[in-house]
Amino acid sequence: MHTYRLVLVAVAWAVGLRLSTAADLVTVDLSAQPWRLTNANQSVAVPTTLPAHVLGVLAAAGIVQSDPLYRYGELETRWVSEDTWNFTLIWSGQQHSELKACKHVLLVLHGVDTFGDVVLNGRHVLRVNNAHRSWWQPLPPDVLRDSANMMSMILQPAVQVALRAKVLNKYNIPTMAVPGGFDVYNFARKPASDFGWDWGPAFAHAGVTGPVQLLGFNRATLIGALVHQQAIKSSSSSSSTFLLHVTAHLLVPEAGDGGLLTVHLPDLKIQQQQQVSLTAVTVAGNPLQALTNMTLEIPAGKVELWQSRGLLQPGSKPVMYHVIVSFEPSPPTPSETATADSEGPYQLDIAPAAADAAASGVDRRPSSSSSSSSSS
Distance between CA 82 and CA 161 in Å, rounded? Predict the structure, then answer.
């Protein structure tokens, strides 16, 4: 089960989004597999699992000091941000055998920091350049093998990539850098703090910040939802209404799909349904997706307004309301396979919880004397 959190300006409720597993969504999680991290010239090679940042992996392995924030650790580990790093995984085709029956197979990266290329079984399948987004990349039908498979995520030095972009930019963009930091953060979709600000360190590290998955699907599948509320006050009376705008986020096959979208508020005994027709488009840079909307009217008298703990009566708790969003594909047509008959609704319970190969280089490892003094 994947968990997403929504940050809302809440008046009547504050919600977290809990995503259940879809019957039609085949998921192969590669994150916990035994990955291997190497640098450009293979002088550093350590095992790891994902998510992971390079600096943290090296600190855990004793290659750099366990606390890079201590004394001159920022400067002594700067070689890490200047190297190219490769996260590599080899796995058996038996682990993704269920994907064979799926019309569409995606490689999903829930976070990569920041610049790099993904090579799967010798084929370049994706270039990444933004640490603030996820990547849902359709894979060619023949790229996965029944035998051994190998994936490499080759991450380039962020400072060098951003510096090249700055040099090539024909306009002077004002920026600033603290002592020991880098003045290129506005040329990289990466947390600006990684380049140093105020008195913080400028590690500018690389890594994989979210799960890595293979997803297969045949029918439209719900993968997320956004909730926005709006208070409407009636001009003819003292009553008011809350409009709850729900945006459902779905994976959609290339040929399109349709089905029944349901929004249910069990605490308020309110439910609304809507037949939707879905066309596969690109959403936030990711293809084979769609957004569809539904609006519910909720009388203000049916809900208790959100109040922070400082304004509540002693012993009281803020009142929050469940919002359940579900989608059920339309019945399959006669031309579709019998496997579609077993598909059930995919349900979202919004619960109140709250690449080019790297060039060879010099050995980047610290000398034996510094390594022995800084290892954990």
Answer: 10
- In Å, how far from its chain's centre is CA 140? 22
Report the C-alpha gap between 42 and 181 in whole angstroms.
Answer: 28
Residue-wise pLDDT tens digits, 118-128: 999 999 999 99
d(CA 245, CA 263): 10
Question: Nearest-CA neighbor of 348 among 1, 9, 12?
Answer: 1
Structure tokens at 137: 């990349």
Q: Map residue 3 onto helix, strand or coil.
A: strand
- Residue matched to tokens 């009547």: 12
What are the pLDDT digits (tens) for 333-371?
666 554 444 444 445 444 443 334 333 333 444 433 333
User: Which residues contact residue 323 at a Cβ distance below 8 angstroms, ignoring those fewer than 6 apart?
Assistant: 13, 15, 227, 244, 246, 263, 264, 265, 350
CB 84 within 8 A of CB 117: no
Concatenating the DSSP letter of every residue in 269-281 gives: TEEEEEEEEE--E
- Asked if residue 24 lies in contact with residue 337, where contact means CB atoms within 8 angstroms, the answer is no
pTM of the model: 0.81
